[in-house]
Every structure is written in C-alpha cells, then in structure tokens.
Amino acid sequence: MPAVGNSQTARKMAIMSSPITAFPIATRNFADIVTEAVGPMIDEKIAPVDDAWAATMAQLSAWMRGPATGGPDGNGYYPWDDGAEPAIAVPSPAKMAVLAATMEIVPVNPGAGAAYTLLPTDSGKRIAINHADATVTVTVPLAPVGTIWFARQMGAGALKFMGAAGVTIINRRDHNGTAGRGAGVSICFEAAGVAYLDGDTDIIA
Fold this sequence. Notes:
Layout lengths: L3 H14 L6 H42 L11 E4 L7 E4 L1 H10 L2 E4 L6 E3 L8 E4 L6 E5 L7 E6 L5 E5 L4 E3 L6 E2 L5 E8 L2 E6 L1 E2 L3
Parallel strand pairs: 3-5, 4-6, 5-7, 6-8, 9-12
Antiparallel strand pairs: 1-2, 7-11, 10-13, 11-12
C-alpha cells in the first residue's frame, strides 16, 4: 500500500506543474477583465491612426487615378494634405503627361557664375538647368499673377531660388531649392509679388 504522504506530494507537484489552461474559468475571466478594461483605450488610440491612413490612401488613389481635367478645380491638380498648412496641389500623372507633351523645354547651362534669372516669356515652359557641381542661384523676377515656371535640376548642382526685388518666395516647408539631381519644381505667382515654390524641394545653403 503506497504511503499517503508520497501520494499527496505527487498530487501537489502535478497541480503546480500544470499549465494555466488547467484553470479555464479563471483564465477566461481574467482575459475578459483585461479586454474590457484596456480594449476601449486601445481602440481610442488606434482610431485616429486608422482614419488618417484611410484619408491618405483616399488622397493617393484620387491623385493616381485622376484625369487631366479632374480635381477640385477641374485642372488636373489634386490636394495633398499631410497635416501641414496649407495643403499643396499636385498634378496627377495624367495631367503631368499632358504637360510634358505640350511643354517646351528650355535648356540652360550656366557658366562659371552659376546663376540664372527666369524670364517671364518662359512662363509655362520647362527650364532644364544643368551644372556639373556648383549650386545654381535662380532669381525669380517680379511677374504677373498666374505666371508659372517648371524647373528641373539636371546636373549635380542644386538649384537655389531667390526672389528679385519685390518678390517673396513661399514654400510650406521653408525650402528654397531642389532636392537633388532630377528634382523638378514649380514656381507660381499666386498673388501680387508672392511666388510659391512646390515640388521636390529641399533646403539649400
């Protein structure tokens, strides 16, 4: 006949070594309590992120699929709002294709001075500025409201935009130039003496 003490010890050891799933009722109740207490707080934190992501994807989809005559103003430009003010208007791929097909390209190769002044007569054209290494200072002259230039950095030399007398250049990130070789930007007068710099921009010293 087995000793009672040994049998009791064996049962205690078996209980202590059992996984927590051996107590389904206690485990389920604890999980329910945690879910009820923490779940709403998690949902509250995640909901704004989900909403922001959905809004971003909606903007991206509208821009990617937008026709050249679409957008809020029917001109092929779509708003892109990443939280900064004001939101920028970006041409859809279809609009860019139309612009590329109809836009005259003006090649510019600055010499040793690495400087260029935009011409009002080049409004609506693509200004392809190429310098092998030096930063090119591009002066934006005073021009009528609606004047717009499209400039591209063709070489390693960045484009740094400066306003002529009476011209204020605004970029929502306080950038003043192009972000690298191949970067394209637009400069548009949207108010008297106020030109907006949009596109693939960066801060150029």
